């Protein structure tokens, strides 16, 4: 996969991060990088005072640095800013960060030597994954602490994950892979850490999981409808065309497709006039979540090809300009919206779980128990779903509305975007577990109704789910079932069923 700084896609990120596709650098990008670097070196030779090249950082921006100390300035920057704490990001997130930083530097606005970018690409191609603590970023000036831990590895410091996923000193692993550390020159340390690549990496991978989870939630909801003998009339296209939201219209069409040929669904007035909102309003609620994901995708696709450091080198105009592209507000708000959109997927799923297990709301065996009273069946699975949904409500509080001044008030407004991205990821993991619980309950319900009466699409989903989790014939430790089905939903490279 060729990087050029301008046309990276979400699908390409997925291929590099998860499938270890080899990365190369385009010739055109190399030329831009070399021209940008030449401007930096000219500025150094002329003793021009430019932030980040021959000045201190943050509140120290007015402190001019002697020419003989410029390289040490950049090395000190990496060492001092590597203040991350907490559990490390996953290997996938770290790989995505390396890829995104290389892509940003290839735009030719950062003034680094080509070797710096080549070393980032070498990390990817040799499977060398930096250990990057997940906490410590304010989201402006960019993801300073996380990216400093990434940069440490280029210097032969810090830690990497080995092939077994164990944390090892970079100084022990790099020589085994033939990786030669580098010494940073003027501007390069700042260029490596001034950016939004931590929040964006988490955001991209979270979005990809959210997209698949939301689609799976529709398919599972269709099976729930069969288990409850729900009314298909509410999904009539005329209803949704009358409102006009395209995402809502598309969800309704997909729900009709999943349930095509089913003998378990009913028509308006056959068994009841209307279903509860958690059934009847699936297109309206999930359609709104799709709208949120569309917005998030748009912002991520821009950010993965953005120049987000400071200052920026404009070779055509011969200018070096200081600005604030490192500020993570666009991604911070997108991540907060993603949290809300996905939390609602779990909210409505948990209400359908309640309708599947509550004997006051259906004519199924109470709590889907094989022996009601003696055995509790799915009773406590609903508790677990309710707990996850409640946790999501706390996590969904927007991170982007908070700001704490830093660097002696020079950096007096920050985005907290990386916190938002981390919380969005946790919400998606919780949502997947909730819809896994709904799937367990739905498979039990359709067994009571009659598998042979199911739609082809939902029957395919049922059969695949049953390969992972057997029927409930007696009480057991259902935690194992929930986790097994959750991992299946996450790891399957295919969608559970066709949309058609």
UniProtKB/TrEMBL annotation:
Contains an active site 4-methylidene-imidazol-5-one (MIO), which is formed autocatalytically by cyclization and dehydration of residues Ala-Ser-Gly. Its main location: cytoplasm. There is a cross-link at residues 140-142 (5-imidazolinone (Ala-Gly)). SUPFAM superfamilies: L-aspartase-like. Its EC number is 4.3.1.3. Keywords: Cytoplasm, Histidine metabolism, Lyase. It catalyses: L-histidine = trans-urocanate + NH4(+). InterPro entries: Aromatic_Lyase, Fumarase/histidase_N, HutH, L-Aspartase-like, Phe/His_NH3-lyase_AS. It is found in: Cytoplasm. Pathway: Amino-acid degradation; L-histidine degradation into L-glutamate; N-formimidoyl-L-glutamate from L-histidine: step 1/3. The keyword Protein transport does not apply. The modification 2,3-didehydroalanine (Ser) is found at residue 141. NCBIfam families: hutH, PRK09367.1. Belongs to the PAL/histidase family. PANTHER family: HISTIDINE AMMONIA-LYASE (PTHR10362). This is Histidine ammonia-lyase. It comes from Alkalibacillus silvisoli. The lineage of its organism: Bacteria, Bacillati, Bacillota, Bacilli, Bacillales.
């Amino acid at each position: 996969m060729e990087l050029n700084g301008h046309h990276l896609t979400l699908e390409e990120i997925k291929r590099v991060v998860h499938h270890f596709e080899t990365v190369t650098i385009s010739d055109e990008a190399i030329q831009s990088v070399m021209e940008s670097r030449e401007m930096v070196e000219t500025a150094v030779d002329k003793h021009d005072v430019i932030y980040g090249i021959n000045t201190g950082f943050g509140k120290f921006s007015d402190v001019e640095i002697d020419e003989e100390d410029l390289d040490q300035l950049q090395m000190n920057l990496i060492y001092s800013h590597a203040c991350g704490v907490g559990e490390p990001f996953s290997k996938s997130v770290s790989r995505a960060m390396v890829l995104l930083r290389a892509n940003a530097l290839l735009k030719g606005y950062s003034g680094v030597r080509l070797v710096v970018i080549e070393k980032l690409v070498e990390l990817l191609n040799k499977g060398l994954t930096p250990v990057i603590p997940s906490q410590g970023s304010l989201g402006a000036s960019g993801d300073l602490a996380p990216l400093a831990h990434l940069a440490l590895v280029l210097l032969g410091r810090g830690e990497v994950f080995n092939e077994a996923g164990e944390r090892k000193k970079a100084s022990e692993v790099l020589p085994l892979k033939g990786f030669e550390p580098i010494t940073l020159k003027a501007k390069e340390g700042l260029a490596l850490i001034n950016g939004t690549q931590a929040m964006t990496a988490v955001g991209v991978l979270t979005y990809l999981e959210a997209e698949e989870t939301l689609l799976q939630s529709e398919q599972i909801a269709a099976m729930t409808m069969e288990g409850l003998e729900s009314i298909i009339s509410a999904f009539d296209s005329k209803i949704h065309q009358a409102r006009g939201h395209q995402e809502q219209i598309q969800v309704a069409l997909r729900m009709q497709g999943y349930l095509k040929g089913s003998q378990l669904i009913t028509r308006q007035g056959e068994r009841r006039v209307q279903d509860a909102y958690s059934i009847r309003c699936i297109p309206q609620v999930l359609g709104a979540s799709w709208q949120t994901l569309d917005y998030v995708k748009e912002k991520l696709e821009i950010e993965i090809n953005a120049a987000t450091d400071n200052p920026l080198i404009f070779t055509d105009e011969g200018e070096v300009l200081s600005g604030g592209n490192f500020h993570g507000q666009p991604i911070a708000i997108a991540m907060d919206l993603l949290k809300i959109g996905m939390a609602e997927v779990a909210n409505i799923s948990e209400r359908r779980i309640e309708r599947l297990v509550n004997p006051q709301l259906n004519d199924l065996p109470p709590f889907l128990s094989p022996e009601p009273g003696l055995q509790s069946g799915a009773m406590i699975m609903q508790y677990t779903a309710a707990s996850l949904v409640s946790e999501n409500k706390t996590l969904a509080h927007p991170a982007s509305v908070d700001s704490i001044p830093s660097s002696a008030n020079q950096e007096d407004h920050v985005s907290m975007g990386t916190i938002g991205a981390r919380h969005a990821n946790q919400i998606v993991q919780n949502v997947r577990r909730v819809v896994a619980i709904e799937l367990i309950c739905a498979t039990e319900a359709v067994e009571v109704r009659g598998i042979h009466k199911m739609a082809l699409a939902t029957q395919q989903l049922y059969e695949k789910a049953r390969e992972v989790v057997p029927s409930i014939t007696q009480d057991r430790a259902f935690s194992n079932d929930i986790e097994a089905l959750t991992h299946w939903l996450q790891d399957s490279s295919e969608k559970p069923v066709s949309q058609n």
